[in-house]
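Hey, quick one: can you model this chain's 3D structure?
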Amino acid sequence: MNLWKKCSILAAVVLLMFVWRPALATVVNALYDFVQISAPSNPASGNSRVYVDSGTHKLSCLNSDGSSCAPTGGGGGAFTQIARTVLGSPSATVTFSSLGSFNHLQLVINAACSGAVTGDFVDLQANGDAGSNYQWQYAGALGGSSNTFHGSGTATGHIGNVSCASAPANAQGIVNFTLEDYATTTFSKQGTGTSGYVADTVYTGNLFNATFYWIWTSTSAITSIVLSLTGGSNFITGSTFTLYGLN
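Sure thing. Here's the predicted structure for all 247 residues.
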């Protein structure tokens, strides 16, 4: 772009800041304080929308397809923590309702459950949709044996496992799960991840690890995530859930 065009655009932006200053920001000692908001609707085709995200407290940018147009720095690929929940008391669900503006989401879980079993599935539901709109599959190994399992037309989808009350003391499960292009509206929403937990009353020979594939058949952008356990018990106190954004 020619220098004069860049200068013209910059001048226009500065002018708009002064014209719209009462609505967008307040001035303190010649500094602008902008109001933080949740992710807005996508702009029209060919446009981008810039705002300060109330969930991440960072300057964000949306393209018309819902992808991020914010610069990533350092060549991209950096993770930004969106939110972290550390349970102070048992809870049947964990919800993330402010997802920021990123291309992908990474969910890291380190948790255990209160059910009177050795382990349970962690389920993910998008946008509060409890219809039969989920598909899932896993391929895992327990000791020296392997197994696969799948679900179709379910009300939520498995993304990993955690240890429960009948597992060894202080045992937990870990889940690393990625939701790709969660804010776009062209394809169904899909995610993949890995998980591991102690699947019996002793550690030796009972370590289960698996890869998981999750699908929500809607083309809607994901705006909230609810995590729960298939058996209906609680995530125990001290369980951690961290959500990252990735561009």
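One thing worth noting: The two ends are 25 Å apart (CA to CA).
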